[in-house]
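Entry type: protein chain
Record version: 2
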Amino acid sequence: MKAYGLEDMAYGKALIKKLLKEGVTSPQSMANKMSNPLYKEFAKAFDFAGKGAAATSAASATTGAVQRYIQQTLEQQEGKDNQGVQLALYFKRKASSVTTTMGILADKALLKFVQTTFGIPEAASRADLDFQVRNLEKFLNVKDLQDPKKVDKLIQRFNAMWDMNNATSATMSPVLSLFNQSTEQGMSIDLMMSIAKLRLGGS
């Protein structure tokens, strides 16, 4: 549940059982009707409706869930020391799933990332919704979020703006240390995911 950002709903066993039982194939299933897309992602990963007992051995329910859990945990741990790192990790994880400008406005963390990256004042969030959409589209083409290289460039720009706004030291920031493959001060998230895939015993 934590891997899919639904740990607060872990007590709702009846709801979760219904989600898993109905799956995502039918437009009328509960997962497809709920406004929070995380429920659909969860039900799709643990596809009991489509795969039956084999669902628990599927890659999406094993490797995929583990990777998501590691990312969620990493975000929370790093966020205790540096909110900028937490925002960068969150953006890295969520970017490819965003398909509309409204998707950014609806997510406070993504919005803060974009506002910081392009120097958009937080007061802009109090403007008319249509104005907010038009304003964001002046700075960012949502289609760019499907390109890993452009996402990394946005993270680099975010890092520079975050450091400038928060007066960090001249040394490499903790944000870049997580995403720069060549740095000796930290591991990139891709490297950490590769490590997570290794099996115990070195096989």
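Comment: The two ends are 28 Å apart (CA to CA).
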